[in-house]
User: Which sequence fits this backbone?
C-alpha cells in the first residue's frame, strides 16, 4: 500500500515538470519574440515542430537555419584567409538586417498586425538566399539580390 502511495506521489510530482516544458514551448509559439534569440538552432527546430501555427513554425525554422548559415560564413571566412579575418562586412550586414526586421516585426505583431510574421519570414528567406550565394562564392549574385527591391 505504501509503495502505491509513493509511486503516485512520484508520478504527480513529475507532472508539473513535464507540463512546464510543454508550456514553455506553447508560450514561445504564442509569443515568438519572447526570448528565442537565446536558443540554439536545435532548440528552435524543436519549438517549430511543436508549434501549431505554420507561420510561427516557419519563423523558428528560418531563425535556426539563418543562425547556422552565419556560423558557417564565419568558419569559411577564417579558413579562406588561414587566420581570423576582420572583413566581416557581409556577416554583419546580414545580422543587422535580420535584427532590424525582428525589431520591426515584433512591434507590428504586438500591435496586432496579422502579416508581421509572414513579412518577417520573407525577410529571413531573402537573407538566407543572399547568405547561401555568399557561402558558395557568388558574391556578384548576392549583391544583385541585395540591391533588388524585396516587394516588386
Assistant:
Amino acid at each position: 500500500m505504501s509503495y502505491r502511495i509513493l509511486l503516485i506521489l512520484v508520478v504527480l510530482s513529475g507532472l508539473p515538470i513535464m507540463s512546464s516544458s510543454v508550456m514553455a514551448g506553447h508560450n514561445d509559439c504564442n509569443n515568438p519574440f519572447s526570448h528565442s534569440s537565446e536558443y540554439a538552432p536545435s532548440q528552435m527546430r524543436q519549438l517549430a515542430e511543436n508549434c501549431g501555427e505554420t507561420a510561427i513554425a516557419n519563423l523558428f525554422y528560418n531563425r535556426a537555419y539563418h543562425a547556422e548559415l552565419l556560423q558557417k560564413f564565419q568558419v569559411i571566412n577564417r579558413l579562406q584567409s588561414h587566420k581570423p579575418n576582420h572583413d566581416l562586412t557581409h556577416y554583419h550586414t546580414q545580422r543587422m538586417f535580420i535584427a532590424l526586421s525582428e525589431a520591426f516585426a515584433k512591434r507590428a505583431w504586438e500591435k496586432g498586425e496579422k502579416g508581421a510574421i509572414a513579412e518577417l519570414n520573407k525577410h529571413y528567406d531573402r537573407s538566407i538566399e543572399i547568405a547561401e550565394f555568399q557561402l558558395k562564392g557568388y558574391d556578384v549574385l548576392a549583391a544583385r539580390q541585395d540591391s533588388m527591391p524585396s516587394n516588386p
